[in-house]
Amino acid sequence: MVRIGFGYDVHQLKDGIPLILGGIELPWPKGLESYTDGDVMLHAIMDALLGAACLGDIGLHFPDTDPKYKGYSSLSLLSEVGEMLDKAGYDVNNIDCTVVAQRPKIAPHIPAMRAKISQALGAGADRISVKATTTEHMGFAGREEGMACYAVCTIIQRKALSEPVPEA
Ligand code: MG
Questions:
Q1: Do residues 67 and 133 touch, judged by C-beta distance below 8 A?
Q2: 2-157 placed in CATH 3.30.1330.50
Q3: Residues 103-154: tens digit of each pLDDT
Q4: Residue 31 alpha carbon to ligand 1 centre in Å
């Protein structure tokens, strides 16, 4: 059985912090503010994966009230999400995401991002799609106040559900 998931995330851009996106650091004077490393792309991907498996969201599993996650690598969190899905009996089939950012240019970094996401999930890079768009200078992304990311994924259930779905 194939299941679809969707994720969306936004973070503010702040001066003088590293820009971590898609698991790599981009050379840029502003970075994404967050209790973790602010990787808006990986956050959207994790929410898509968790959503596809009906396993909640990253706020549930990695709460910002837990000091353990302060400055935490989102790539490590992505690996943990991959393990959660594996334990629940799912394989990642494919991921597609679009990061919304006016600057910097994302395209030169896409192969490295796909490789990082692929490694973290143990899924082939041919299953991981990363795209980017500007907003033609409109809205918060266009004004370079922040970045957003949309992600969808499909996952495949390896076996039948072990427990019946509870009745409403
Ligand atoms: Mg986030």
A1: no
A2: yes
A3: 999 999 999 999 999 999 999 999 999 999 999 999 999 999 999 999 999 9
A4: 13
